[in-house]
Design a protein that fits this description.
It contains nine helices and nine strands.
Length: 231
């Protein structure tokens, strides 16, 4: 029942044109929902996916921990949700992109969260000095030769380094397997997002090859989406 004014109509037309050309509506409105809350997003971070919320569900089931590290935090949606849901006493969040960390800080202000320690960190080439009860991550897992086949909304607007490892899609999982003992405190575990059913078998082989146990959890579409890794 509200009649649009001329300037409002112009803004609406501009938004429609942006959407028609493939720009995600989350970028157009500057926010995206995750686990019941809105988070600031732009072209510097991956748009949060509903399926990633299963990771939060699993953390809740396992119970609160002393320390949690979110590697490749992007918008910060996982780390900030963990803080808001009181899932860990201490929360750390890292990303290789300084621009992504700017989005994290904006989201921390938005949600009035100030207890998360952030750092710019290259996980593939640098180690951590501390160990954590839980390490969570939604790492890049799309194969480099599959990027061109993605939807325009993903291929042209999500940051490429958040989508692909530039190789076969398993580089980060090999690194997680290699660094498990250096990262995880006794009795701790990793929770990682994976690329669905086709990804599960090879991820399982990677972790079992170094003596680690892995358990898999499905999303609402029935695809394997989260792996929990323990000693």
């Amino acid at each position: 029942e509200h009649l649009l004014k001329a300037d409002e109509l112009k803004k609406l037309h501009s938004m429609i044109i942006r959407r028609v050309t493939g720009e995600p509506f989350q970028h157009i409105i500057g926010k995206a929902p995750f686990y019941g809350r809105d988070f600031i997003v732009n072209r510097n971070v991956l748009i949060p996916r509903t399926e990633t919320g299963i990771l939060i569900d699993r953390l809740k089931e396992n119970g609160k921990v002393q320390s949690l590290l979110d590697i490749g935090t992007g918008s910060g949606c996982i780390a900030i949700t963990c803080a808001l849901e009181n899932l860990s006493e201490k929360i750390y969040a890292t990303d290789i992109s300084p621009d992504a960390l700017n989005v994290v800080w904006a989201n921390m202000q938005l949600h009035k969260v100030d207890g998360i320690q952030t750092a710019c960190h290259d996980f593939l080439n640098n180690s951590f000095k501390s160990k954590f009860n839980v390490v969570v991550s939604n790492p890049p897992y799309i194969r480099a030769d599959e990027i061109d086949n993605l939807q325009v909304e993903v291929r042209d607007y999500d940051p490429e380094q958040a989508l692909t490892d530039g190789s076969d899609g398993y580089v980060f999982y090999r690194r997680f397997a290699e660094k498990f003992n250096n990262l995880i405190s006794p009795g701790g575990y990793m929770l990682l997002e994976i690329g669905g059913n086709s990804h599960k078998e090879d991820v399982e082989i990677i972790f079992s090859a170094v003596g680690l146990q892995s358990e898999y959890f499905r999303d609402m579409q029935g695809d394997y989406r989260i792996v929990e890794v323990r000693k």
